[in-house]
Prior knowledge:
This protein is α+β, with helices and mostly antiparallel strands. The chain has 5 helices and 12 strands.
Amino acid sequence: MTFGREDGQIYVIKKNGYYMFFLYCFYSKQSKNKYLYLLNGGKLKKILQNRLGDLKFYYYDTIENYTENVRLLLDRYTGGQKKISDFVKGLGGSGKIHGCIVDVDKPGIFESYSYCHLFVNPIDGRITPYFAYDVSSRIVYNDFKALLKSQKSCKLLQDNYKRREKELSLNMPALQYSSQLEEWGYESSMYDEGSYLYKISRIIKSLQYVAEKSIVRIWNEELLNSDFINRIKAANRIEDMIDDTLIVEINGK
């Protein structure tokens, strides 16, 4: 199926509930030839297999295998995120997941966004509690409790956290930035700049879109390589992304 759009055409692949959207066009006015580009929302993504014939003989043939491998890689990571989300919800918070980020506080009546978050790093498994008004800077806290204590919007969550902390006594682990806190000294928070957290999060969000919506918006050739998938599984890189000792079980189990 194609649709006219200025100098190019949109192509849609649909196979057993899986979708991919492409634009066949000149990348710029200086381009001499038209190529296929993967559509990620309104953005064009360059792809290695970029000829019209690749739609049928490459992407259509491999889309099911690709999406299954993405689900395989994200399974443990998103499972760990879900535990964090459920815990936050159990405290009366938002728990909304988007990319690598779990929202902590619920937006106010006249607001659309949460300002307190937990960033779950897919590379090293670290969980970063932070407060931010925008993507360019943030205040990072050394643990979840410090974040709750610092923000009025988290008063309910803080009270519920204290109650659970008392119920679970010393068996309650900390949801913290790192198990190695010597670098913090006596500080409970640090000022941080840069949009690097959101760059990683956008990649994970695109992969989550594949797993949850069955729409491929990011393409990595390695995800079709079964040896690559098995090597990652064998190295426990996905399994170790979320350490269960960082999660406070809601039921105390």
